[in-house]
Amino acid sequence: MKERRIVSGIRRLGFLLLGITAGAQAFEPLPEKPIAPATNPTTPAKVALGKALYFDPRLSVDGSVSCNSCHNVMGGGEDGRPFSMGVRGQLGGRSSPTVWNAAFLSVQFWDGRAPSLEEQAKGPMINPVEMGNPDHAAVVKRLQGIEGYKPLFKQAFNAPEITIDRVAQAIAAYERTLITPDSSLDRYLKGDKKALNESQLRGMQAFQDVGCVACHSGAAFAGPTLPEGQGFYQKFPTFPGSAYDAKYRLTEDTGRFQVTHQEADRHMFRVPTLRNVALTAPYLHNGSVSTLEEAVRVMAKVQLNKELDDGQVRDLTAFLSALTGTFPRQEMPQLPPTPGRTAFAP
After folding, report:
1. CA dist., res. 120 & res. 289, Å (int)
2. N or C: which end of the chain has fewer CB within 10 A?
């Protein structure tokens, strides 16, 4: 028994030393906060307004869908559905990506069509499946009719006027507070060598050896840090032809090609963050994979053309669970009322 403990201790020391080297080369702790653009500095008043707007279903045409409906910050930042549900019960064509740590991504949406959080915030409001408004003017008119929003806009922008750009800026300012630092991996990289167990340490090494780090690098595990608007993309599947293609409908969505119509962008997708990935099932752009273990097997095969054994899958999954961070407490905001009438009155 004593010899076993000694061997176990030596093995753990080996993994620790290996992990120190690997972490220094391939992994970065998540910053405490992102850098806000000069055109939209973060202020407490702007964040408070953005939070109210983020939770307000009156941004949708019939008052049934808010930003939080599909990107639930009371959970993993998505909605747990393969496809999100918009107005009138309509389903979108892709799984909602998490909003947690989205501020560290250089482009938004699976196909990267929005170059910033501000531009992303505008899109769903006029998407016929998501929030269903005919145009942004309809959203602004509705908000202008809610008296309680005027002082909030004045506090946030030093003027009471409501514009779609200010709506988007406020929502983006709130989203830049949705950061989850202090994961087990972060603590490990900062010097707490007990923060990862042996399986997670093996998984960290396998993450590099198998080749996952080729795409999922950087502090957000979403690729290298790039200037805003310059997304990091990868073809999916890179190695088509496996049984997974049909099982999980991997080749049906042409990805970024739908935005650019350039043949080189066919089946190209923005590399998603792996931060908190253990909490964001189902997986892939179409939400077709229900468990993290299966997602690990699928990605290894279709992206790296590698078959993993059960031990590798367990260790990689254990490592990915170490990317779950500390979530700042969220409280539902009190929304400005419309006394005696509905906001949708003609």
Report:
1. 25
2. C
Q: By the 8 A CB rule, do 232 and 270 touch?
A: yes
Q: Crossing angle, helix 136-144 and helix 164-175, to 10 degrees?
A: 90
What does the block give as tokens for 176?
């830049």
What is the per-residue pLDDT across 211-258, written as a single tens digit (0 to 9) for each? 999 999 999 999 998 888 899 999 999 999 999 999 999 999 999 999
331 is an active site residue: no
Do the beta carbons of residue 140 and residue 70 sit within 8 Å?
A: no
Active-site residue identified among 78, 130, 175, 294: 130
The string of pLDDT tens digits covering residues 305-321 is: 999 999 999 999 999 99
3-class DSSP state of 111: coil
Q: Is residue 259 a contact partner of residue 301, using CB atoms and an 8 Å limit?
A: no
**Angstrom distance (rounded) from CA 197 to CA 185:** 10
Look up residue 170 and give its amino acid: A
Scan for tokens 């869908």, then name that residue. 65
Report the distance separating Cα 130 and Cα 116, nearest Å. 19
Which pairs count as long-range contacts for 292-300, CB under 8 Å and 24+ apart, including other chains?
292/317, 292/320, 293/317, 296/320, 298/244, 298/248, 299/212, 300/210, 300/212
